[in-house]
Queue: 2 jobs
Job 1
Amino acid sequence: MSLEIRWTKLEDWEQIKWIYEAGIATGDATFETQAPPTYETWISKAILECTLVAQDDDVLLGWIKLSPVSDRCVYSGVGEVSIYVHPEAKGKGIGDRLLEELIKRSEQQGFWTLQAGIFLENLPSLNLHKKHGFRELGRRNRIGRMNGVWRDVLLLERRSNIVGVD
């Protein structure tokens, strides 16, 4: 496999959308239950320099996106991570490579804190984030309903060792 991690582009949308839909179908990746939004809506909520895909030849094996948590300038260095891996590529280190690259690029962009909200049942994602220095801040009990069922989410955070340490 010749894996390339690169910035997202419009031509990637159909594969990004398919991977996102596969994540939605699991019921453990997101509160979303509908089809993904348009590319324009999806990318408008992203830090472009930190929105990446993992590609092998012409096939996307995963994507990762960093979104601002707030418009307030005091939170300009805080971003929320979303990561999705193609179902056939799970367990092959794709998420590991994407998150490693996102952390590097986010620090280059001045981010001092990355956060993620993950369902308790999504053990692969929890383990991946913890492997990369995310720590559990707490459990958000009954934070949202999905298909009529209350769901809990673990809130994780990673603080940079480079940015915001002064």
Job 2
Amino acid sequence: MTSPLRLKTRHKTFVSYHHADQAEVAAFIDYFDHDHDVLISRGIGASMAGDIINSTDADYIKRRIRELYLRDSSVTLVMVGAQTWGRRFVDWEIAASLRNTSTSSRNGLVAITLPSVSGTAGRLPPARVGDNVDGEKGYARWMKYPTSAASLAGMIDDAFNRRTSHSGTANNTRPLRMRNA
């Protein structure tokens, strides 16, 4: 028996989020990964005790996160909740995602606003995402919560393709956030 033709490739996608949004993110993963096979989700998990990398060296932190957690993903989804903008682990994950080396390519990057904060004004996306969002010219995209599996698949494909089409616009120069805001 042959499977139906897929219109989009199912990318290995690292999901970055603040632990306070864990239930909402788990529902997103259940729906879009488990129920609809839009992505293959990867993530660190919500039960991190202390630092995930015990260092203050920015290059070392980015390299270790890439080696330990992002190694087989090609796209990073940042799930944006009320406090995501000020979380250091989220910033570290985004910085590691944007790291491009001879042994690993940077990930595509897309931020998605969670429904719980969709009408909220103020500091929503992490600053490092903001550094990379510039309409059609930017490396990253900041999107509303997807309304269908097809719309999420399109967002992920776009982020994956921007790794090459917009590679010169990636900005990872911001110092790492060393404390939560």
